[in-house]
Amino acid sequence: MQILEFISFSGGQTSAETGASRFTFFPFYFQQRALDTNLNYTAVVPFYGHLKNRLFRDEIKFIMFPLYSETRKKEVITDNYLFPVFDVRYGDHVKGWQVWPVFGVEHKKSSLRTNSLDEVETDGGYDKYFAAWPFYFQERGGLDTTNQTKSLAVVPFYCRNHSATRDVTSYGWPLGFNVIEDRAKNYEEHDFLWPLNVVARGDRTVTRVFPFYSQARNRDLESDFYLWPVYKFNRLESGPLERRRTRIMFFLYSDIVETNREAGGLFERTDFWPFYSVRRDMNGDYRWQTLAIVEPFFPNNRSMKREYSQVYSFWRCEKNNKTGASSQSLFWNLYRREATPHSKKCSLLFGLYQYQSGPDGQRWRVCHVTVGKKTARVTAPQS
Questions:
Q1: Residues 363, 350: contact at Cβ < 8 Å?
Q2: Where along the chain do its domains lie?
Q3: What's the predicted TM-score (pTM) here?
Q4: How far is residue 208's CA from residue 188's CA, in Å, rounded to a whole number?
């Protein structure tokens, strides 16, 4: 049970059968009791406390917080004095200290670890420094690995990140001029007031002056706009599938065309909010609907069509390409017609007038009373 975010109770058996129960009066009192007494803890903030698996840490101890506290996350322990001004960190090859916001340093040695495939790999070390936070940062990562990184930031004047595959240099971060050289993806990019003005050349090509004009493309993707959001175009190629979408004013008008070049299928969908929605799927099934108030915003949500379309769509037309069956409905079945290659049904005034024809003949009904019936003539086979 929880009352707002301040008082909460929980307890009972868990999958681990610890039988733990918790009581919290946030942020002043924390308590847990379990069958395993090693999981018990009590904390009375700010005087004294011991927490386990709370507040994003594996373990927390404190005395007269913020005078002293100790936190543990995995194998790294941090001792804080006058939190967050002074702290010392150690454990799991990590050593560091800080006098925030004046200066801080942290170092981690590289080590070996076993990954999920039971393979031994190198866990790269790092060196981190900061001074006059948040204005000066320096870091080296991936030490003793093949992908070492270096970064230097003098905020807001200069920032540089370097690795074996990618270099990023910024002048006037975050709203100044940026230069990106991505050797792994083989392109170079120049930004000014990113993402408003971007020029990239290589395997990735971008020319953007927001909101007037943009063209961005690579081998599989294309994204263009003119006078955003007046006109927007996207293209995706993934194997045999090609998908194109054209939009005007977000969802005012949308046209989607998907082509399967291998199987020869074609999917088309056109939405003109709120007037109509037209859909033809890969099987050739067809559906037209007027009005379409919600569907353009949730084009892949079948529940919207099933639950809400019946309320406001006064015209619906559907056709099954495989069976040849079709149906039309006007003004919530004021007029309705259903047809197959061998039969036809029509109704008017919500079923007060009905007509049906098929291999067995024709039939008329008025107010659910049969007023005329004609049996089909059967011709005997010739000998």
A1: no
A2: 1-84
A3: 0.71
A4: 14
By CB atoms closer than 10 A (0-12, 13-18, 19+), residue 60 is buried
Tokens (6 digits) for 57 = 């840490």
Pairwise CA distance, residues 153 & 255, whole Å: 45
- What own/partner pairs with CB < 8 Å and gap ≥ 24 does 239-247 have? none
User: pLDDT tens across 204-257, in order?
Assistant: 999 999 999 999 999 899 999 999 999 999 999 988 899 999 999 999 999 999
Bridge partners, residue 338, by sequence: 327, 345
Q: Which H or E element spans position 312?
A: helix 309-312
Separation between Cα atoms, residue 309 and residue 304, nearest integer Å: 7
Residue whose C-alpha is closest to residue 170's, from 203, 193, 147, 188: 193
For residue 106 the two structure tokens come to: 């942290």
**How many other CB atoms are found less than 10 A from the CB of residue 43?**
24
Q: What is the dihedral of CA 10, 12, 15, 19, to 10 degrees?
A: 100
Three-state helix/strand/coil letters over 254-270: EEEEEEECCCCEEEEEE
